[in-house]
Amino acid sequence: MKMTMSMKKHISRVLIAIVCLVILYVYAMPMLLLLLNSVKNQSESAIMSFTLPKEWMFQNFVNVLKKGNIIRAFLNGALIATSITAITILVSALSAYTIVRRNDRTSKIVYSYLIAGMIAPFSFVPAIKLLQMLNLYGSYSGIILIDCAIQIPFTVLMFSGFIKVIPRELDEAAIIDGSGPLRQFFQIILPTLKPAVSTNVILLFTFGWNDFQNILFLMPDSKKWTMPMSVFNFQGLYTYNYGMVCANMLISIIPILIVYICTQSYIISGMTAGAVKG
Q1: For the packed helices 59-67 and 242-277, what is the interaxial angle rounded to 10 degrees?
Q2: pTM of the predicted model as reported, rounded to 2 decimal places
Q3: 46 with 244: CB under 8 angstroms?
Q4: Which position among 4, 132, 156, 246 has the lowest Cβ density within 10 Å, counted as fewest Cβ atoms?
Q5: Class of residue 239 by CB neighbours under 10 A (exposed 0-12, middle 13-18, buried 19+)
Q6: Helices 227-237 and 242-277, interaxial angle, to 10°?
Q7: How many other CB atoms are there within 10 angstroms of residue 4's CB atom?
Q8: Residue 43: how many CB atoms within 10 A of its CB?
Q9: Which of 44, 78, 86, 80 is CA-nearest to residue 252?
Q10: Residue 170 pLDDT
Q11: Distance separating alpha carbons of residues 99 and 252, to the nearest angstrom
Q12: CA-based nearest residue to 195, from 159, 169, 165
């Protein structure tokens, strides 16, 4: 007996609903576990269960704010993530515009070099040595420049896909109106890159905020540590008090979680536009 079209649609909807529920379970359960154990005392949180606490220990969050250097870590993370985002977007957008519009042998070589940067593995030993030679090891500037260098290849690739479909007639019209290269880029080209800029702002800020290993190896000064490193250090100090550890982790992810929830539509629209334009 052949299935009717309505039966096929019903089955597909059920399958989609099941997949969505599975994905929701995979992502929601760890968050629920973290939330429940963040308000338990030391003995209850050691079990790491989904049961409700017998005594609600909201004091865990107060203790974390007092002992975890959260405010300093928050400000450090905001400074580093914001700087990485701004510098990478500006450099990548200008580079992509120059590469696409010139379209000569030199620009193709530079583009290939940047693409190779997405494949080549990052090595900490040469990076540390280079930063020491430049007297930037352990500084905000050093970690920001390293993270920018890591993210620029992919960001240039994304911007290039958008710029390739922008008509050259816009450039010619701007030249006729007397616009120089920089004015032409900032007043005409950059506004048309809004979907790509929005997407990259979110991706880059998330990367800078969640960066752990670069901070671990390239930032020896604990006063300059960001939120992930503060969580790592706090966990080492309170290894057996999972209630406080969970509270610390929850506080550290709340800012970036809020940013992501509020701006997820820009990621989707930007990626979709990039796929269509590429």
Answers
A1: 80
A2: 0.80
A3: no
A4: 4
A5: exposed
A6: 160
A7: 9
A8: 11
A9: 78
A10: 78
A11: 39
A12: 159
Residue type (1 letter), 60: N
Angle at 145 between CA 144 and CA 149, to 5 degrees: 120
- Do the beta carbons of residue 48 and residue 37 sit within 8 Å? yes
Tokens of 36: 């429940």
pLDDT of residue 84: 96
Tell me whether residue 14 is exposed, middle or buried, using C-beta atoms within 10 angstroms of its C-beta: 0 to 12, 13 to 18, 19 or more. exposed
Spans of the chain below 70 pLDDT: 1-5, 68, 237-239, 264-278
Residue 208 CA to residue 223 CA, distance in Å, equals 17
| Residue 81: how many other CB atoms lie within 10 Å | 25
88 vs 62, 128, 203, CA distance in Å?
36, 21, 11
Q: Strand runs (DSSP E) across the chain, as ranges? A: none
Return d(Cα 64, Cα 57) in angstroms, integer: 12
Calculate the CA 148 to chain-centre distance. 12
Find, among 94, 99, 87, the residue nearest to 201 by Cα. Answer: 87
Question: What's the Rg (C-alpha) of the chain?
Answer: 24
Largest Cα–Cα distance in the chain?
A: 77
Residue type, 58: F
Please tell me the distance from the alpha carbon of residue 110 to that of residue 98, in angstroms, as a whole number: 10
Listed in sequence order, the residues at least 6 apart from 165 whose beta carbon sits closer than 8 Å to its beta carbon are 277
Sign of CA dihedral 147, 122, 197, 113: positive
Give the Cα-Cα-Cα angle 106, 111, 117 (nearest 5 degrees): 130
| Predicted local confidence at residue 272, as pLDDT | 53
Structure-block tokens of residue 190: 């950059």
